[in-house]
Target: AcrR family transcriptional regulator
Amino acid sequence: MKLTRERIVDAGMAVFAEVGYHHLSMRQVADRLDTHAGSLYYHVRGKDELLALMADRVCRQAYDAGTEALAALPPAADWPDRIHAQAAGLRRSIGQHPGGARLLAESPGMLSTGALSLMERLLGTLVDAGLPADDCGIAADTLLSHITGFVLQEQNGPAAPPPVTAEVHAELCERFPLLMGPTFPRLSQDEKFTRSIRLLCAGFATLARPPAAGS
Model:
């Protein structure tokens, strides 16, 4: 089968899922394709470019997922609904790839139409919400950082709680009544994610300017 950039990215994603960000090598990718490492360099300049192409693929998938989610919203959906649709699409797309959050967080800087498309649409939604232009970039960066960090924690998996005696548990409840008490919500990951995006949007809404008269 002809060696192409798309096939190299496919192999890179498969190797990445097995060995992670720092251990991926062009030789491993070549072995996956049953070819020599030197053959890859006709299509991809090196590991940094391959990682960037892999991250771009995840971003393009996230953009498409966001497009579908936005199309499914009712006509009366408000801008926080549109933000959440895009955020949920990105979360799902990153989560489909083992180590996907680390890939986006650590991939080398490279012009990526996938990432730029995600950012452009988020910015457009925030501008439509009435946020000042000089705050929109920070708001969009905050959203993307939060989503990536949230999925990174999910992909790392929850740490097993240390065993404690009833006496130690009672002491912890006394020292940390808000955290350990019954009023602190125990939420599913989906509910936690939805609420976190809503909280961010509520903060952004305090910056929104009302539309000008006659607009």
Observations:
- The CA atoms of residues 3 and 40 lie 8 Å apart.
- The mean pLDDT is 88.
- The longest helix spans residues 47-71.
